[in-house]
């Protein structure tokens, strides 16, 4: 499972970089979104996929011997929230640039 997710992460990073290298604003925003999702999957795979109990105490107040590490999951949630913020900013920027006449590509902003 980790091997397949690693391949998926690599493919998503490659697709995101490919879209970032285009001159179109819409593809630029899609590339940012795809790279953000690839990063979340990478953190998930790096945290190891295990089926263990949650790190909570039982009725007697004893912690389980083995439990899943909650730090990668917290990092993924944080990355997703930051990714949504970046996506909202990029879409707003895309809309503002789209309203400017005679601008279709990133290179047209230099004028």
TrEMBL record:
Under the heading Gene3D superfamilies, the entry gives:
1.10.287.3510
Q: Which UniProt keywords apply?
A: Cell membrane, Membrane, Transmembrane, Transmembrane helix
Q: Name one GO cellular component term.
A: plasma membrane
**Main subcellular location of this protein, as a coarse class:** membrane
| Any Pfam family hit | Oxidored_q2
Membrane-related topology note: Multi-pass membrane protein
Q: Give the UniProt family note.
A: Belongs to the CPA3 antiporters (TC 2.A.63) subunit C family.
Give the protein's recorded name: NADH-quinone oxidoreductase subunit K
